[in-house]
Design goal:
9% strand; disordered C terminus
């Protein structure tokens, strides 16, 4: 269920997106103005606070019918999407900043570190996976050996294979 204030915003936003669905520049202006209005709301000045509004609005826009005029092919997802989803988004830097742990989380983790029962076994498993012939096992080995969290690998890192040398960027 969407936030009440957000549903009220949609009463204006959605008809505007439908009205201008063939005008890419107008859609961009509408989306930028909408996010600017959210940022102007009391309590929503931090990018992290805007995450819910953006996610719910993008889900609502996905419910709009796609036509040849209002769609674009998203190369990242490999799917057709409403053209508004191109501009109704945060930059990669903003998403990265939002996903950083808070200072409180960092302090809590420093004060109460997670103790691993057998770290040597974990390292050995990661090394074994790096030598595997199966690409998914090699990727898992890279993830284990870099300390990456599950789910972050797709967005924050690109793992590529080139001449049997693996790069994590």
């Amino acid at each position: 269920m969407a936030l009440k204030w957000l549903e009220e915003r949609w009463r204006t936003l959605i008809p505007e997106l439908e009205r201008w669905s063939t005008q890419e520049e107008e859609i961009r202006v509408i989306c930028e103005a909408e996010v600017a209005a959210w940022r102007g709301r009391s309590g929503l000045r931090k990018a992290n606070s805007l995450r819910i509004a953006l996610t719910q609005t993008r889900q609502r826009v996905r419910q709009l019918p796609l036509t040849a005029e209002n769609r674009w092919f998203n190369p990242r997802t490999g799917e057709w999407e409403h053209i508004a989803l191109k501009d109704l988004n945060f930059s990669q830097e903003e998403w990265l900043h939002m996903n950083l742990p808070s200072q409180e989380d960092v302090q809590r983790k420093v004060a109460h570190p997670l103790r691993l029962r057998d770290p040597e076994a974990i390292v050995a498993c990661g090394e074994r996976l790096l030598r595997a012939r199966s690409w998914p096992e090699v990727v898992l080995g890279v993830v284990i050996n870099t300390g990456a969290k599950r789910g972050r690998n797709r967005e924050d890192r690109a793992i590529s294979r080139k001449d049997e040398i693996f790069r994590v960027v």
